[in-house]
Automatic annotation (TrEMBL):
The keyword Transferase does not apply. Pfam families: adh_short_C2. SMART domains: PKS_KR. Residues 7-191 form the Ketoreductase domain. This is 3-oxoacyl-ACP reductase FabG. SUPFAM superfamilies: NAD(P)-binding Rossmann-fold domains (SSF51735). GO terms for molecular function: oxidoreductase activity. Belongs to the short-chain dehydrogenases/reductases (SDR) family. Keywords: Oxidoreductase.
């Protein structure tokens, strides 16, 4: 469809996994999509070429989500390149597992920086350029509804912050005609959550639908939330988890 024709979107952490699927989907729906990446320049460039080859518009920008200056600079690059920002998808995230006391202070600070502070920096900078009809979507996690297993308390803390930030922003941005929602994926097959990894053994039996999610399952939810169909949807926490939390 062309439902996002003339829209400019930013997807943070768009080089791989769920973010890359969101980039593909928004571009297929007609948006011009800027994606940020950190460690995977080759994957980011390949994705940009893929989108362009299928007639879409995309651009990749290196920006460490854990570095607010780089995040703000990336958002401004997008504004300078395309003249506006309609959609921001805060997807960049990292996961470090460990029992209490096992996750190092460095890893904890890094998770906070990438999953929380980076989201705030991108949002505040994008909001300088976003007007009526603007859309912000945060990628949270179903762990804020139901955790289901151990070693994930600090990651869950960061995703709880994502949910709280969404709800708070709803009140600030409603009057400006901007919606803010969180998509909460369940287990999705990516580098972060490989289907042959140790966590998969615990997760697979709990998935009501009997399978892991794919990036496009999450991208579909994002596509809905940024479309006109969702004009009246703000403050939602949309679980896309194959029934894991039921
Ligand atoms: P992956 O690890 O597969 O991919 C992460 C993406 O984020 C990559 O494109 C990576 O880019 C980017 N990224 C990571 N760190 C940074 C950084 N410091 N700066 C910029 N980009 C960064 O993860 P997923 O695709 O699985 O996860 C995407 C989001 O979905 C995350 O927020 C995650 O917490 C959430 N989620 C995932 C679930 C799952 O089961 N997979 C379940 C619930 C939520 P690069 O390699 O270029 O650094």
């Amino acid at each position: 469809t062309n439902s996002l024709k003339n829209k400019v979107a930013i997807v943070t952490g768009g080089s791989r996994g769920i973010g890359a699927a969101i980039v593909r989907r928004l571009a297929a729906d007609g948006a011009t999509v800027a994606l940020t990446y950190h460690a995977s320049p080759g994957k980011a460039e390949t994705l940009v070429s893929e989108v362009q080859a299928s007639g879409g518009k995309a651009k990749a920008i290196q920006a460490d989500a854990g570095n607010p200056d780089q995040v703000r600079a990336a958002v401004n690059d997008v504004f300078e390149a395309f003249g506006k920002i309609d959609i921001l998808v805060n997807n960049a995230g990292i996961l470090v597992l460990g029992n209490p006391g096992e996750v190092t202070s460095e890893d904890y600070q890094r998770m906070l920086a990438v999953n929380v502070t980076g989201m705030v920096a991108a949002t505040e900078e994008a909001l300088k350029h976003m007007g009526q009809g603007g859309r912000i979507v945060h990628i949270g996690s179903n762990v804020t509804q139901y955790v289901g297993f151990g070693t994930i308390s600090l990651y869950t803390l960061t995703k709880g912050a994502v949910s709280g930030y969404t709800r708070g922003l709803v009140r600030d941005l409603g009057p400006r005609g901007i919606t803010v929602n969180t998509v909460q994926p369940g287990p999705v097959e990516t580098d972060m959550n490989p289907i042959d990894g140790p966590v998969a053994e615990v997760m697979l039996p709990r998935l009501a639908v009997g399978r892991y999610g794919q990036g496009k399952d999450i991208a579909g939810a994002v596509a809905y939330l940024v479309s006109h169909e969702a004009d009246f949807v703000t403050g939602a926490e949309l679980l896309v988890d194959g029934g894991f939390s039921a």
